[in-house]
Amino acid sequence: MKSLQSRESELVSPERQFGVLKEIFTKKKLPSFSEKLDQSGIGTLHPIPTEIFQMNLGKLCNQTCKHCHVDAGPDRKESMSKDTMFHCLSVLATNSVSIVDITGGAPEMHPEFRWLVKELRKLDKKVLVRCNLTILLAGTRYADLPQFYAENQVEVVSSLPYFEKRRTDSQRGEGVFDRSIEALKRLNAVGYGIPNSGLVLNLVYNPAGAFLPGAQNSLEKEFKSSLRKEHGIEFNSLFTITNMPISRYLEYLQESGNLENYLEKLVTSFNPSAALGVMCKNTLSVGYDGTLYDCDFNQMLELTVESEIRNIRDYDGDLLNKRKIRVGDHCYGCTAGAGSSCGGATA
Ligand code: SF4
Ligand code: SF4
């Protein structure tokens, strides 16, 4: 098996990924996600007016995590242009969307990241940044990020696969746990995660193997107790996220011989309540080149919105709100068990 750190996804083509899923769904006679929605009486998914505007600044990242659905890494060149950022800001200036969720890659590596955050704050938007923690220790250029976040009242959402070194490093790379702990201490030092500071620090858990996350409340208690006792670290909430069977995680499932069982598990754990709360209903996802998607996962599979409006430069909220959400069999990752979204469990 290849080293996880040097791994480059071989499932680059979305068609190949759909093909792999389709083959197993056919072999196992599993209902497609659309069929499942119909069988459960939910039918076609439609959006409500956008509440979360998610901007993906590109695929450049200082890490190469084995579960990464973005296939991000240090050699990736895709990056949002300033022109596309201007289009996003212009849409947001006249829009009631209250939350802007900035992701990547490691969004902080984008040269215009700080400018963008300040512009969004001028528009009075709540800004969430998906920070991988280790970026705070990736050189002097990033060392003052905790202060920058605090000054701009940014909400920080950070992945920490587990509160123990072995499981975190196996998923995100050797030494990532120790650097993540140091980064969390630096965020705590400026007030993040500290009660009544007004600075929100949420952590994201996703399973290290081919299984569904445990109950969010119980895991949050375990994370809080262990991180406080072992490292003196505080945070606000834990979001549990189910690994999506796409990109590098799909490759991992194939290589480890877990793919069929994992897909069956997702299908048999389908939860109609979770299906009613999927994040694509209130989120619009903007790719680095301005292309619009129902969610970040569809973005990685190049499933653009089903609308004549396909790019942020042509934005028309009324037309976009009339679209159907594009679903595929990967969507079972959002509806299994307690559900999964960028904000954790949904049911
Ligand atoms: S830190 Fe995030 S974006 Fe970067 S490789 Fe890991 S999962 Fe992907
Ligand atoms: S993968 Fe995207 S489109 Fe599918 S259910 Fe999840 S959020 Fe919705």
What features would you describe in this structure?
By secondary structure, the chain is α/β, with parallel strands linked by helices. Helix content is 36%, strand content 10%. The protein contains 14 helices and eight strands. The protein has helices spanning 14-27, 33-39, 82-93, 113-122, 145-151, 165-172, 176-189, 216-231, 247-255, 259-268, 272-276, 296-300, 317-321, 332-335, and strands at residues 52-56, 99-103, 126-131, 155-159, 201-205, 238-240, 283-286, 292-293. Strands 6-5-4-3-2-1-7-8 form an eight-stranded mixed β-sheet. Strand 3 (126-131), helix 5 and strand 4 form a beta-alpha-beta unit. Residues 1-9 have low confidence and may be disordered. One iron/sulfur cluster is lined by residues 278-280, 294-295, 297-298, 325, 327, 330-331, 334. The site of one iron/sulfur cluster (SF4) has 11 residues, from loops.
Q: In angstroms, what is the radius of gyration?
A: 19 Å
Order of helices and strands: HHEHEHEHEHHEHEHHHEEHHH
Describe the main β-sheet briefly: 8 strands, mixed
Distance between the termini: 36 Å
Q: List each distinct ligand once.
A: iron/sulfur cluster
Give the percentage of residues in beta strands.
Answer: 5-15%
Number of strands: 8
What share of the residues lie within helices? 25-40%
